[in-house]
Amino acid sequence: MGREHLLEKQKSGFLSRQEQGVIMLKQSVQLAFMTCVLAILCYTNTALGHGRVSLEEDTCVRQIGENMVHLNTYQPQFDQGGHYCTEIPMAGDTYLVVDLIDLGLRDMPVGMKVFRGEEKEGDMIIQVNAAHHPDGVINGIGRLDKGLYSVIVTAEGVPPLNYYYQLRVEMVDYGKLARTWAGPAIALLFLSWLLYKLIQSGRLKSWFKSEDD
User: What keyword terms does UniProt attach to this protein (predicted)?
Assistant: First the structure.
């Protein structure tokens, strides 16, 4: 029995139990498939970067009181248009750009230091001496090998303001990866379970047989 014939009978209100079961079966599979697709799309949107979110939700923003700074990192030698925050995909020369979001920070000397490893425990890789930045932008560049790095942006106010970032270069954050993939994994498990139940019940075979009639 063809799909068009089933749809016509559904509109007219005359369906046998078997025909109703076929339609419900198809709708269940379609729903499971769409759930899986939506979960994967949500993962993709998350993985592309911090994107268009408010400053309060942006993971690249650090705030002390009313004063906020924003960090972007770039590796144009690998990806001309790519920009990152604290998860840097490749080791190599890395540009760090700090935006002084609040105007008050532009009226005081601000500097930046990048250390290998935890805060101030490793070698200093990049140093930008404290100075006024009327354009609100601090730039630094240095070679970052694989590993952890600490970024400290210091505004020399009273008291001084210290903004802290931890960079991960060419490393996999397994905890974040697990959280990100939780939704798609659940959707795939549900779809697999549903298909298994359909195969066990023999309904899947009946469905394909109905498509051929």
Answer: Membrane, Transmembrane, Transmembrane helix
